[in-house]
Write a structure and sequence with these properties.
Elements: H1 4-13, H2 16-21, E1 27-29, E2 32-35, E3 48-51, E4 56-59, E5 65-66, H3 68-75, H4 80-90, H5 99-127, H6 132-140, H7 145-150, E6 154-156, H8 164-167, H9 171-177, E7 181-183, E8 189-191, E9 196-202, E10 208-214, E11 227-229, H10 245-255, E12 257-261, H11 264-272, E13 278-280, H12 294-300, E14 303-308, H13 312-325, E15 334-339, H14 346-351, H15 355-364, E16 367-368, H16 369-380, H17 386-400, H18 407-422, E17 424-427, H19 430-443, E18 447-451, H20 457-461, H21 465-474, E19 478-484, H22 485-494, H23 505-512, E20 515-519, E21 525-529, E22 533-537, E23 556-559, H24 564-577
Parallel strand pairs: 12-13, 12-14, 14-15, 18-19, 19-20
Antiparallel strand pairs: 1-2, 2-3, 3-4, 4-5, 6-9, 7-8, 9-10, 10-11, 15-16, 17-23, 18-21, 21-22, 22-23
Helix pairs in contact: 3-4, 16-17, 16-18, 17-18, 19-21, 21-23
Length: about 575
C-alpha cells in the first residue's frame, strides 16, 4: 500500500496544470486555468477550473472534482497505482515504496498480453496461405513467401469474431486486454482486425508487442483506414510501435544508420534487396513521424534517413517530421531526407529495371537536414520580398529554439540566416557537383534549368541522369537543357564520338522528357532550381569528368539567397535571346 505521506508529497511537487493541460486546452485567467470539462457532454468553455495553488480541478456544471491522481484515473482510465507510478516517472520523483510489487504486477500483466498477441499472431499466420487475394497483393508488390515468413506476416479473416477460435470463453476480456477486440453495443466484442494483412510489431527480443492490420483491396474502400494497430497499454513503448525493429536493430547498430519509411510493405521490399537497416512507423500521424519514435532509433543510430513520397503530402510529412526531430539533433547525430519520385512507391521502384540501383543512389544522395530546411523555407516563402524573408526567418527561429544547445545549433543558425539574406556555398569535387545536380532535379517543384556548353553520353550516364529527369517530368516539373551550338558543331567535325546526336545523348534527354535548346556563344555553366537555388561555376554539368593527368580544379558557387529570383529571370531572358537552330557544318 502506498503511504499517505508519499501521496501528499507527490501532490505538492506535481503541476496539476501541466498534467491536465496536456490532455485539455486550458486558458489562464487570474490565478486559475479554465477549459472545457471532459466529463460531460455539451460542456461550457469556462465551466472547468484547474487551480495550481489548491492542487485540484472542479467543474461547476457536472460537479467533477479531484486531484491530479483522480483526474488520471477518471480521464485516462488508470488504476490508482498506475496513476501514482505515471506521475513519479513523468516528473522524475522517487518511486513509491511498493514499487517492486507494482512492477511485478505490471510484468505479469505484460506477460499475459504477450501470450495473447503471440497466440493471435500464430493464428493469423496459419490463415495467410489460404488467403488468395492477400497473397496476390503481396506478390504484386514483389514480396516473396520467404520474406513473409521472416517477418511473420498473417491474414485476419473477414469474420467478426474469428479470434474466438483462439481464446474460447476468454475471447472478450483476455483479447480486449491485448487490444485485439473492440467492445461494441450491448457489450458485445468483435475483432479489431478483419480482412487485413497482419504485420507483427516486435522488439529486439522478437516477442510480439502489437499487430498492424493493413487493408489491401484496390481501390481502397471509402472511409476505411489503410492501417489499424492493436492497442495494449501494458506493452506500449516507443520501440514496440516500430515495424521491423527486431529484424533491423542489429544492422542499425552495426552500420550506425537507420532508414525510416512509413509503410510496412516498404520494409519487406527493401529487406529482400539487402537493405537490412530499414524500419517503418505505421499508423502514426499521416503528416509526420512523431518524436516518440525517434528516441529508440537514436539510441542505435547516429544517422537517420527519412524516406518520403515525392508528393505534396510527402513534402508536408517531411517538414513536420523535421520539426519533430530537431529537439534531438546535435553534432553527434545526422539527419537526412530522401524523397521518392512522385507517383511511384518503394515496391514499384524496386521492381523496375535498375530500380535497386536507383534506390541506392537516392539513399546516398539524401539531402542533409540543413539543406532540406533551407529549401523548404525558400519554397514556402517569397524570398524576393522583405516580407517573405522575414516570414521565413520567423519560421526558422520558432524551430531553432526547440533545439538543444550545441555547436551544431549555432552553425545551423549561422548558415540559415546567412542564406536567407544572401548566402554562397562552394562545391568542389565531381561527386559534390553530381550530388547537387541530382538534388536540383529531384527536389524541383516547377522547373530545373541546366546550362552545359558540352553534352556527352558519358556525362549523362555517370549519374544516371535521365532516370532522375523522367521522375521529375512525371511529377510535373519542366527540365530545360541549354548547350552551345558552336561547341557541338566542333565536336561533330573533330571528335571521334561526334556531337550529342551521334553519341545518342540528345535522344536520351528527349526520351526522358527534357527540353533541349541550342544557344549561340554561351560558355557559362550554371544550374537553376525554381527560384530557390542558382549555381554558377566552371563545372560542365553534362560532360565527362576529367581524371588522371587531365583532372583540374572546378568550383561552383551555390546561391540560395533572396536575389536568386531576379538573377534567374535575367539569365533565362539572355538564354532565350540566344536560341538558334542546330545546323550541320
Amino acid at each position: 500500500m502506498i503511504s499517505q505521506a508519499y501521496i501528499g508529497t507527490l501532490l505538492q511537487q506535481v503541476s496539476i496544470v501541466k498534467v491536465i493541460g496536456a490532455d485539455i486546452p486550458l486558458a489562464r485567467h487570474g490565478a486559475n486555468h479554465f477549459g472545457a470539462c471532459p466529463f460531460h457532454s455539451q460542456s461550457e468553455k469556462e465551466g472547468f477550473t484547474v487551480s495550481e495553488s489548491k492542487r485540484f480541478y472542479h467543474c461547476f456544471r457536472c460537479g467533477a472534482h479531484g486531484t491530479v491522481i483522480g483526474f488520471l484515473m477518471k480521464f485516462r482510465k488508470m488504476s490508482f497505482p498506475e496513476a501514482v507510478h505515471w506521475i513519479s516517472e513523468k516528473f522524475a520523483l522517487p518511486p513509491p515504496i511498493d514499487e517492486r510489487g507494482f512492477r511485478l504486477a505490471k510484468e505479469e500483466e505484460a506477460a499475459a498480453v504477450t501470450a495473447s498477441l503471440e497466440a493471435a499472431t500464430n493464428f493469423y499466420q496459419r490463415q495467410l496461405p489460404t488467403a488468395k487475394a492477400a497473397i496476390a497483393f503481396l506478390r504484386s508488390k514483389g514480396i516473396s513467401g520467404q520474406t513473409a515468413k521472416k517477418f511473420r506476416l498473417g491474414y485476419a479473416p473477414t469474420g467478426w469474431d474469428s479470434l474466438r477460435a483462439v481464446f474460447g470463453s476468454d475471447y472478450g476480456e483476455t483479447a480486449a486486454e491485448a487490444g485485439l477486440v473492440i467492445q461494441g453495443r450491448n457489450d458485445r466484442y468483435y475483432d479489431k482486425l478483419r480482412d487485413r494483412i497482419v504485420f507483427p510489431l516486435m522488439q529486439s527480443t522478437e516477442k510480439v508487442h502489437g499487430l498492424v492490420g493493413r487493408a489491401f483491396h484496390e481501390p481502397a474502400k471509402k472511409g476505411v483506414p489503410e492501417s489499424l494497430r492493436t492497442s495494449a497499454t501494458a506493452l506500449t513503448t516507443p520501440a514496440s510501435l516500430i515495424f521491423g525493429w527486431a529484424q533491423a536493430s542489429r544492422a542499425i547498430a552495426h552500420s550506425g544508420t537507420a532508414i525510416v519509411v512509413h509503410d510496412c510493405l516498404d520494409v519487406l521490399a527493401l529487406s529482400q534487396y539487402g537493405f537490412e537497416n530499414v524500419i517503418a512507423v505505421p499508423c502514426g500521424d499521416a503528416r509526420r513521424i512523431r518524436i516518440k519514435y525517434a528516441e529508440p532509433i537514436l539510441k542505435k543510430a547516429s544517422k537517420i534517413i527519412f524516406c518520403f513520397a515525392g508528393t505534396q503530402a510527402g513534402f508536408r510529412a517531411a517538414w513536420f517530421t523535421l520539426a519533430d526531430i530537431l529537439p534531438f539533433v546535435d553534432e553527434t547525430r545526422e539527419v537526412r531526407f530522401a524523397m521518392l519520385p512522385d507517383g511511384i512507391d518503394v515496391c514499384a521502384l524496386l521492381q523496375i529495371e535498375r530500380g535497386v540501383t536507383e534506390m541506392q543512389q537516392m539513399i546516398r544522395a539524401a539531402v542533409p537536414l540543413s539543406d532540406h530546411l533551407l529549401q523548404h523555407l525558400c519554397t514556402l516563402h517569397k524570398m524576393g520580398r522583405v516580407e517573405g524573408r522575414a516570414a521565413a526567418l520567423k519560421a526558422f527561429m520558432d524551430l531553432w529554439e526547440s533545439m538543444p544547445e550545441s555547436p551544431y545549433k549555432q552553425l545551423l543558425h549561422q548558415r540559415i540566416l546567412t542564406n536567407l539574406v544572401e548566402g554562397i556555398e562552394l562545391v568542389r569535387s565531381t561527386s559534390e557537383h553530381d550530388q547537387l545536380l541530382i538534388e536540383v532535379i529531384s527536389t524541383a517543384r516547377r522547373e530545373a534549368i541546366i546550362m552545359s556548353p558540352w553534352v556527352t553520353r558519358s556525362g549523362i550516364d555517370r549519374v544516371n541522369l535521365c532516370w532522375h529527369i523522367r521522375a521529375a517530368v512525371d511529377r510535373g516539373v519542366t527540365i530545360r537543357v541549354y548547350t552551345d551550338v558552336g561547341f557541338n558543331q566542333e565536336r561533330r567535325r573533330s571528335a571521334s564520338v561526334g556531337d550529342l546526336f551521334s553519341d545518342g545523348s540528345h535522344a536520351q534527354l528527349l526520351q526522358a522528357g527534357a527540353e533541349v535548346h541550342f544557344v549561340r556563344n554561351v560558355h557559362s555553366k550554371w544550374l537553376l532550381r525554381d527560384d530557390s537555388l542558382l549555381s554558377v561555376g566552371s563545372f560542365n554539368w553534362l560532360s565527362a569528368s576529367k581524371s588522371g593527368r587531365y583532372s583540374r580544379q572546378e568550383i561552383s558557387a551555390v546561391h540560395r539567397g533572396a536575389t536568386v529570383p531576379a538573377q534567374a529571370q535575367q539569365l533565362q531572358a539572355e538564354l532565350r535571346a540566344r536560341i538558334v537552330p542546330y545546323k550541320d557544318l
